[in-house]
Design brief:
- By secondary structure, the chain is mainly alpha-helical.
- It has one domain.
- The protein contains 13 helices and no strands.
- The protein is globular, with a radius of gyration of 19 Å.
Length: about 290
């Protein structure tokens, strides 16, 4: 019993620190001058390199010899576009709005599964979709003129959420016997190859020389550390518990924005964020809710 309790505690600590590291992406974005495609390439390629070092160090290089199926290309593309749009959202609007919209992803994934995988769409699924739409409306302050830099940031944020949903959807198509290290390594590798031509087109050597330390730290902290701790948490915790803890990323991103960049948090942003958070929690707990009331 004590060992099981210790495992739970380690899982909780890993999950919280994973969300902390991944939420810090906005800090790096605010301090890097390079184009979003350049940032995305370094984040993906260096993360793949760090994972390669990890499996070599642990003597698990054989895990990378198992190549995931063709859906890895869809997941790599989705990963790339999610990061690019998320970075662009952070650049155009606040960190809090960007991360809230990113977490529309699970809702989009549910829709994709309903349409393409013929999975059922329950009343709770529909309710979560309605809540997320109202969340966006509150963040827009019900202003439909769609003008200005903030509106563009919201558009990028929605696109990042859609891409994140496609990451979830495409990963469900990968065979379950493929290891987490293999999935992550090839998604990072495929994503970096896909974004490389665009990164080269927008590459500025002077900017990269100025940003190189930030770029390496971003890849190490937001990619390698965050994902490694995420793997550890998923290994030690039930999926539902990790899913709930993953929403701490919103809290940390908002906290970073308020403390480091003096971003304002009005009642519309808070209400919109809470509605999107609630929509995600409905997805996580929908089976428990069904058992309670049906």
């Amino acid at each position: 019993m004590p060992s099981m309790l210790n495992s739970k505690v380690k899982g909780y600590v890993s999950a919280v620190f994973a969300t902390l590291f991944m939420a810090s992406l906005g800090i790096f974005v605010k301090n890097i001058e390079s184009a979003p495609t350049v940032m995305t390439f370094f984040r993906l390629f260096l993360s793949a390199f760090f994972i390669l070092l990890l499996v070599v160090f642990k003597g698990r290089i054989s895990e990378l010899l198992v190549f995931p199926d063709k859906s890895i290309f869809l997941s790599g593309l989705s990963l790339t576009s999610s990061i690019i749009f998320y970075i662009m959202a952070i650049q155009k609007t606040s960190m809090s709005i960007a991360v809230f919209l990113l977490y529309l992803g699970p809702v989009f994934a549910s829709l994709a599964a309903f349409i393409f995988l013929k999975e059922g769409l329950s009343g709770l699924d529909i309710a979560s979709l309605i809540l997320s739409v109202f969340g966006i409306l509150f963040m827009l302050k019900f202003d439909f003129r769609f003008s200005g830099i903030d509106a563009l940031g919201i558009l990028y944020g929605v696109l990042s959420g859609f891409s994140y949903g496609m990451i979830i959807f495409s990963n469900r198509m990968i065979k379950p016997n493929v290891s987490l290290n293999s999935r992550s390594f090839y998604q990072f590798l495929v994503g970096s190859v896909l974004v490389l031509p665009f990164a080269l087109a927008q590459c500025n050597i002077l900017s990269i020389k100025h940003d190189i330390l930030w770029l390496v730290m971003m890849a190490f902290i937001c990619g390698f550390l965050g994902i490694t701790l995420m793997f550890n948490a998923i290994k030690m915790l039930p999926a539902v518990e990790y899913s709930v803890l993953s929403y701490f990323e919103m809290f940390f991103a908002t906290l970073f924005g308020v403390l480091l960049f003096r971003e304002d948090m009005d009642v519309f942003k808070v209400t919109g964020g809470l509605l999107i958070l609630l929509s995600g929690l409905l997805q996580v707990f929908k089976n428990n809710i069904k058992r309670m009331f049906l």
